[in-house]
Specification:
The chain is of the alpha+beta class. The protein has 14 helices and 24 strands.
Amino acid sequence: MTKLFETPLYPYQLSADQKAESPVRHPAVVIGAGPVGLAAAIDLAQHDVPVVILDENDKVSWGSRAICFAKRSLEILDRLGAGEDYVNKGVLWNLGKVFFGDRKVYDFNLLPEDGHKRPAFINLQQYYCELYLVERIRALQAEGKQIEIRGGSKVTAVEAKDDHSRVSVETPDGPYDLEADWLIACDGAASPTRKMLGLDFVGRVFEDNFLIADVIMKADFPTERWFWFDPPFNKGQSALLHKQPDGVWRIDLQLGWDIDKEEEKKPENVIPRLKQMLGNDVEFDLEWVSIYTFQCRRMEKFRHGRVIFAGDSAHQVSPFGARGANSGFQDTDNLIWKLKLVMDGLAPESLLDTYDEERVYAADENILNSSRSTDFITPKSEQSRIFRDAVLDLAEHHEFARPLVNSGRLSLPATYDGSRLNGADAAGLPPRTRPGSPAADCPMSEDWLLHKLGGDFVVLGLNRDVPENLSAHGLALRGLTLKGDDVSPFLKDRYLGEEDGAVYLIRPDQHVAARWTTFNEAGVVKALGQTIGKEL
């Protein structure tokens, strides 16, 4: 992996903007070439929006960092053209085990039903995540898409104006300015952009410290998520074990509050801890070590005029539950189709306020779940610890107690209940695919439903005929009629329930906008107007 970390992936090059007499205006600029910024830029390019990515680095991230990518993220990455690379390299898993002390309490399956193309999760180091997205950018460039990634380009100032932003960039050849009609800040938890604009987070800061160690070893552990409460090798604390590609294993060890972080990161202190866990006979090499504390906080608003925040720059959660990168992918998935409509003059700019509303709602849901996980894992009082330990004891023998165990409720996509973009909802159809929910994948006779939906507005007819093409509000809608073998038992269960047919309006981010039991063109036109913000 050393070569991957050391090799410039997008080396600095002098751009035409640096030679211009006045700042060049770009339709969209993304700050940050992490997974979320790269995903945003790819989505823009696939929508034929010219985009520039700025990052002070020129390589993949050091260390595995984010490793757990959820099913919904993989489905988003499929649409971005990178999902297959992730799955082919990643370690697929659905199962997990929970331990209390030295005994197993219970195990669980995050995807107990069949009929899904993608697994519940894969584990994949962030450096591979970034590598495959950059490779996707290169493929888009070869197709003629206007997408540019500028390494060695540090943003030093952002001036937000009413109709654009002015960005100052420091490079090896000196500084220059450029302008952006729309600026998307994906520059991480420390977000210099956020600080430059005088913005901050609201929420909780946790004082517990956790050691992350990526170790290379040969081990017999299965491909599962293992979590320990109060293990004998880390008494009074917690531990987590995950398998990654290339024989790399992620180990998280809770350390407590008042520690010397630099001292704890030294190999002479890390290695004895790991040997206590793994045994003295297991040979391993340290690949990466870090110590983290965390926050469960967010910005009050994610949109500030023509500057929009996504991913960790907008919200932060604890790592328990894998909500960081996964929620960031869902941010960009929600944002880009709306931004494209606004840029093309097909929707009012106020549509972007619904990015703020829907993703703040999702962030609050993630923060709530993440905070509850953290409070269960790290009790703040003796009473809380007694309650937690009693739940763990009960869970070993009694199924009713298992939902109370919280070792990190794992990431699920948000359902935008109550969103003002949601349209009609016919009674009798399954609540699982109600308006605001992400469309559930299902096998078809020769394909998968989400692949057929793609990234368009789609009128989906299930045992109901819908027009192949429909035009409304200046938009072209694609009709997709499924009958016979294409309406599989999985599709019936997830979309029809007890009804014999239905019609769904699907948004470009594959969330359900509205649904009916029969096709009604006037109803579809009205729902579309609501979904793009013209009838709010």
